[in-house]
């Protein structure tokens, strides 16, 4: 999927978001925010959702410098990049990846 020559659009900016390192799912019941330490976020910053071609990117960035902390490319929804949380409509799970395509799950 080539995105050369295409421009990047900003779809949404949330200035204050929290990220939590979450435990792996023990069963197929889904993720539950009640299982996380919501009072102690592992990272705080801003979230920008951008689109380039047919791919959206959820980017977690430092509020001041704009330095990229993590990003989740979203090629389809629902899919593996963004998952709902069974006990909350406020929280969601992102599968973030580094530039080498290695994935890690965070909220």
UniProtKB/TrEMBL annotation:
<keyword id="KW-1003">Cell membrane</keyword>
<keyword id="KW-0472">Membrane</keyword>
<comment type="function">
    <text>Involved in endocytosis.</text>
</comment>
<dbReference type="GO" id="GO:0006897">
    <property type="term" value="P:endocytosis"/>
</dbReference>
<keyword id="KW-0813">Transport</keyword>
<dbReference type="Pfam" id="PF07933">
    <property type="entry name" value="DUF1681"/>
</dbReference>
<dbReference type="InterPro" id="IPR011993">
    <property type="entry name" value="PH-like_dom_sf"/>
</dbReference>
<protein>
    <recommendedName>
        <fullName>Adaptin ear-binding coat-associated protein 1</fullName>
    </recommendedName>
</protein>
<dbReference type="GO" id="GO:0030125">
    <property type="term" value="C:clathrin vesicle coat"/>
</dbReference>
<keyword id="KW-0597">Phosphoprotein</keyword>
<feature type="domain" description="NECAP PHear">
    <location>
        <begin position="7"/>
        <end position="101"/>
    </location>
</feature>
<keyword id="KW-0968">Cytoplasmic vesicle</keyword>
<dbReference type="GO" id="GO:0005886">
    <property type="term" value="C:plasma membrane"/>
</dbReference>
<keyword id="KW-0677">Repeat</keyword>
<dbReference type="InterPro" id="IPR012466">
    <property type="entry name" value="NECAP_PHear"/>
</dbReference>
<keyword id="KW-0653">Protein transport</keyword>
<dbReference type="GO" id="GO:0015031">
    <property type="term" value="P:protein transport"/>
</dbReference>
<comment type="similarity">
    <text>Belongs to the NECAP family.</text>
</comment>
């Amino acid at each position: 999927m080539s995105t050369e020559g295409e421009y990047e659009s900003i779809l949404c900016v949330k200035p204050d978001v929290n990220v939590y390192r979450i435990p792996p799912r023990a069963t197929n019941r889904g993720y539950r925010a009640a299982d996380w330490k919501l009072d102690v976020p592992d990272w705080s910053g801003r979230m920008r959702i951008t689109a380039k071609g047919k791919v959206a990117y959820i980017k977690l960035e430092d509020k001041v410098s704009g330095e990229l902390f993590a990003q989740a490319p979203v090629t389809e929804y629902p899919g593996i990049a963004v998952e709902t949380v069974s006990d909350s409509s406020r929280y969601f799970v992102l599968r973030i990846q580094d530039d080498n395509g290695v994935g890690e799950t965070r909220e």
